[in-house]
Amino acid sequence: MISDAEVGILTLTPQGRAAAVARVSRIVDLDAFLSARALLLSEKSYRDLVEGLPATLRRVTETLSQRSHGNYSADPYASQYPQWKAKTAARQRAAEEYVKTFDDLFDRWKAADKRAASTISTWRGYLARFTKFLEHDDPHRVDRVDALRWKDALVAEGLKKISTTYLAALNTLYRFGLSNSETTGITRNPFDGVKAPQKVMAGTKRLPFSRTEVALKLNAARKEKLAHLRWIPWLQAQTGSRVAEIAQLWATMVITDDAGNHCLNITTAPDGGSLKNEGSERIVPLHPDLIADGFLEFVKTRGKGPLFYGGSKGKAAVQLRDDQKHPSKGVSNRVGTWVRGLGITDPRKGPTHSFRHWFKSELPRRSGCDSRVVDVIQGHSPESDAAGYRHVETSEMLKAISKLDLKGMADSVPMGD
């Protein structure tokens, strides 16, 4: 039995509240009790219920003890508790539709907005790891201590960027569930505030390509017959783009602006290729060296379809499952493998992404343009709201890009290389 003294401690101190939760959980499966009655409590109401239960249980025990000794007089505490009223049929049906598993929660989140196939695939992997760790698949049974234990287990494995991957995914799913609690039944987010601070160790930061390495890639690309190897390195060198943005280009996305400049319209592909964020959508003029080398003639051979996938006829991707990666992903991977084959094997240099790091410094160094011009060309968000009000014309971008002597770099590589 829980004494009056214990009840006083339990309702006044944080230590007592923690003890209350521990004691109550051994007597009552509170989550199952609430679920069976289709009850959905706010975090405060849930906490108040836990804190109040020890005193209530003591009173129940006292009354039952009196009954066992033949005292059947009126329960002095009964008037303090209102009579239970079951939910209406409509609310009962809503409760029956609450998410039952993590897959249910994930599918609700996925259906609420368009999600990138890579995100869907990766996050399903995170969920599989978490449910295996929990040894159950019920999102309602997860407490903060479960989230903390999983975080510690991931750290112990030596994994990196845990806060921005594994924990961020679960936090996002629970925040979605909590904001839609009327239909999901999720009443709290056990991952709120759970982080794994991990210092970036010296010797691990991503490095840019050197000018020599860029020259090597441009020179080697000129000798390639496959379109993705011939043109994607040059397009990355002149735009600093993510390789996926270039790999999913269609012929219809090579346009002419009002000033007559040939440009890349970097946007979502007609067959489902996506961009990282809103700021990634942009129009970037083509470097004169690419035009001189015949890029526009190549584009004409692709009709209106994809430039770098879809076979010789440039066919669009077939209907993709929501977790099926866009075919441009395979193109991006093949470019990366090709780069490694050139001897650029430093693990700190991404075979395609280090172009972005190189471009960020190289363009202002060669052209004298300011950082906002570089950000617009690369699809980076402005550093401030005020900077976002400055719009960069394609003529200004072209002036800066043209200062990159891509042809000269490619020609600088010794004949034997």
Structural summary, described in words:
The protein is an all-alpha fold. The protein has three domains: 4-96, no CATH class; 102-184; 211-411, hpI Integrase, Chain A, CATH 1.10.443. The protein is 52% helix and 3% strand. It is built from 20 helices and three strands. It has helices at residues 4-12, 14-27, 30-36, 43-68, 89-96, 102-112, 117-134, 144-156, 166-179, 181-184, 211-222, 227-239, 243-247, 288-292, 295-300, 328-341, 354-367, 371-378, 394-401, 406-411, and strands at 254-256, 262-266, 282-285. It has a three-stranded antiparallel sheet. The longest helix has 26 residues, at 43-68. The radius of gyration is 30 Å and the shape is elongated.
Give a count of the beta strands, DSSP E runs of length 2 or more. Answer: 3
What's the level 1 CATH class of the largest domain? Mainly Alpha
Low-confidence stretches: 1-12
* Backbone CA Rg: 30 Å
Strand residues, percent:
under 5%
Task: Name the helix and strand elements from N-terminus to C-terminus, one letter apiece.
Answer: HHHHHHHHHHHHHEEEHHHHHHH
Briefly note the structural class of the backbone. mainly alpha
The name of the CATH architecture of the largest domain is Orthogonal Bundle
Task: List the domain count as a whole number.
Answer: 3
| Structure annotation, total helices | 20
Q: Identify the strand order in the major beta sheet.
A: 1-2-3
Terminal CA distance: 84 Å
Mean pLDDT: 85
Sheet of most strands: 3 strands, antiparallel
**Globular, elongated, flat, extended or rod-shaped: what is the shape?**
elongated
The CATH topology of the largest domain is what? hpI Integrase, Chain A
Roughly how much helix do the residues carry, as a percent range? 40-55%
